[in-house]
Amino acid sequence: MPPFKISVIVATYNWPEALRLCLLSLCTQTDPDYEIIVADDGSKEATKFVIDELAAKTCVPLTQVWQEDDGCRKTRIANHAIAASTGSYLIFIDGDCIAQPDFVAQHRKLAQKKFLITGSRILLSDKLSKALLTKQSWDFSEFKRQILTYRLQGDLNKFLQLIFKRGDGNWRHFKRFFWRRIKGCNMSCWKTDALAIGGFDENLVGWAHEDADFVFRLEHSGVTRKSGSWATEVIHLYHRVRDQSLGDASVARLKKKIQEMSQSLN
């Protein structure tokens, strides 16, 4: 495949300590051709300070798109970030996740025309997350040297994915839409495919399964979903579960959309 530029879109909201770790990990990627766009859903000045500070220190293009805080409107700010991106390929990650050094490179390896990738995450304990958040730097090699200890202490829910990487193949392809196991904190697709479906559905607000809806509409448009497991794992910092009051309604909305689109094909 000819060379292509990648835009990494980082979703964040008022957690600058976590965002610092996320951006530090993204600024030290092995891949040479990418940019970082922070999709900020109305954070206060502390978040902008972190972004500006790191932007001044890194050679990786790092910018911020921001909107007024009016409740959780992740879909809207994500679409603004897509519009602002200059890459032909998009990777989505959340600002409470830490990327491995080859995160961008692995997504590039798995990228194919008319495919999207959904990856997985490694969950950290509250204790380990708090310890990492006190640091002003990030060293993946140091973290990796201690992963067995972390696992034995219950600070990681899994760790082998940080050691062993599997290559590409048809075993990664999903044969049908399966809305579970879709993580918006680790997902990628071609920008043209995202624009063709109108990006994220901005009618979905709050904790609303906007990632599953996005994947479903991409698949419905003819894009095949590919698993990024055992290649692209992100390290997810612990936080309390956010408001999920809109979750049931969002699932019902998504199921209705699946049914209507399926009927339109008959």
UniProtKB/TrEMBL annotation:
Chain ranges of the Galactosyltransferase C-terminal domain: 176-239
Glycosyltransferase found in the keyword field: yes
CDD domains: GT2_Chondriotin_Pol_N
Superkingdom of source: Bacteria
Glycosyltransferase 2-like domain boundaries: 7-136
InterPro entries: Galactosyl_T_C (IPR027791), Glyco_trans_2-like (IPR001173), Glycosyltransf_2 (IPR050834), Nucleotide-diphossugar_trans (IPR029044)
Signal peptide per UniProt: none
Gene Ontology molecular functions: glycosyltransferase activity
Keyword field: Glycosyltransferase, Transferase
Record has Transferase as a keyword: yes
Pfam families: Glyco_transf_7C, Glycos_transf_2
Entry protein name: N-terminal domain of galactosyltransferase
